[in-house]
Amino acid sequence: MPNTLSSPSQQVVHRLNVKWWGWGDPSKSYDLENHKTFLKFLQDRLHCSGDVVQQPVTVDSMKFSPAKADAAFVQSLIGIFGVENVHLDDMDRFLHSFGKGYLDLIRAWKGTPEGLPDVVVYPANEAQITRLFDLSTKWGFVVVPYGGATTVVRGVSARTGDNKVVLCLDFRLMNQVLNIDEKSFLAEVQPGCLGPELERALNSVGLTLGHFPNHSSSQASVGG
Ligand SMILES: Cc1cc2nc3c(=O)[nH]c(=O)nc-3n(C[C@H](O)[C@H](O)[C@H](O)COP(=O)(O)OP(=O)(O)OC[C@H]3O[C@@H](n4cnc5c(N)ncnc54)[C@H](O)[C@@H]3O)c2cc1C
């Protein structure tokens, strides 16, 4: 059973039909029965049951620290991005706290929340982002941009330790290829555009990005 999310924003969170707790097609699973050594490694060294490899943890089984965002600050965010694009629910915060590094993967398997943003917003245009930064004169906050979350160096995990609100800026709604100049080979692309989306647009005018083989670029964004 690949999806046990209970987040109200789960439609937004599932950008691609890929595992959020692993890599690739959610309908494919790893046969641990025939990989007993790996199963033993998981159990003895990583203190994970084999189950976690096949299916995600449930949000109910995790303990979250409350989001720090002040109500007035959240209202200002809603004023900019719209209520449907401002998320403070635990699962959305959790899903925006890790990339695809091995330590991240283990945290996702075990459902160990760490480095969560306090609030996740989905900008639709540059003007909204400008308005967001205008808010920083009133409220100090940390911004963590979020593209395809294929980082293997914990690039999207928020550093905790001070009292600043951490805001994750997820660029998935800004995924358009705005212009392709076929003479100069320059393209104007929004930051949330994923590798395959850009490749398709370039192919339509007889060009290619040339990013082959495309292991991570199948999920990585131009901005990331
Ligand atoms: C299987 C696999 C293979 C990989 N192969 C390679 C490889 O061959 N070469 C390579 O270089 N990397 C590789 N990577 C690492 C990763 O895919 C790249 O670093 C990729 O560019 C990250 O893009 P992303 O959209 O997923 O960014 P994210 O993981 O979302 O973010 C990466 C960093 O960029 C920041 N960021 C995201 N969007 C923006 C934005 N719009 N503006 C400013 N900052 C932003 C984030 O805050 C974070 O710090 C691989 C990863 C995996 C899982």
What does this structure look like?
This protein has helices spanning 10-13, 36-44, 51-54, 71-81, 90-95, 102-110, 126-134, 195-203, and strands spanning 86-87, 119-121, 141-146, 165-170, 177-181, 186-189. It has 3 domains: 27-56, no CATH class; 64-172, 2-Layer Sandwich (Uridine Diphospho-n-acetylenolpyruvylglucosamine Reductase, domain 2), CATH 3.30.43; 177-218, no CATH class. It is flat, with a radius of gyration of 19 Å. The model is unreliable at 1-13 (pLDDT under 50). The chain has 224 residues and is an alpha/beta fold. The strands form 2 sheets. Strands 1-2-4-3 form a 4-stranded mixed sheet. Strands 5-6 form a two-stranded antiparallel sheet. The chain binds flavin-adenine dinucleotide. Flavin-adenine dinucleotide (FAD) is lined by residues 99-100, 144-152, 155-156, 171, 191, 215-216, 220-221, 223-224.
Give the names of the bound compounds.
flavin-adenine dinucleotide
Give the percentage of residues in beta strands: 5-15%
Tell me what the CATH architecture of the largest domain is: 2-Layer Sandwich
Gyration radius (Cα, Å) is 19 Å
User: What distance separates the N and C termini?
Assistant: 30 Å
Report the strand count: 6
Q: Assembly type of the shown chains? A: single chain
Q: What structural category do the secondary elements indicate?
A: alpha/beta
Main sheet characteristics: 4 strands, mixed
CATH class of the largest domain: Alpha Beta
Q: Indicate the CATH topology of the largest domain.
A: Uridine Diphospho-n-acetylenolpyruvylglucosamine Reductase, domain 2
For the largest sheet, list the strands in their spatial order.
Answer: 1-2-4-3
Low-confidence segments, ≥5 residues, pLDDT <50?
1-13
Q: What's the helical proportion of residues?
A: 25-40%
CATH superfamily descriptor of the largest domain: Uridine Diphospho-n-acetylenolpyruvylglucosamine Reductase, domain 2
Mean model confidence by pLDDT: 87
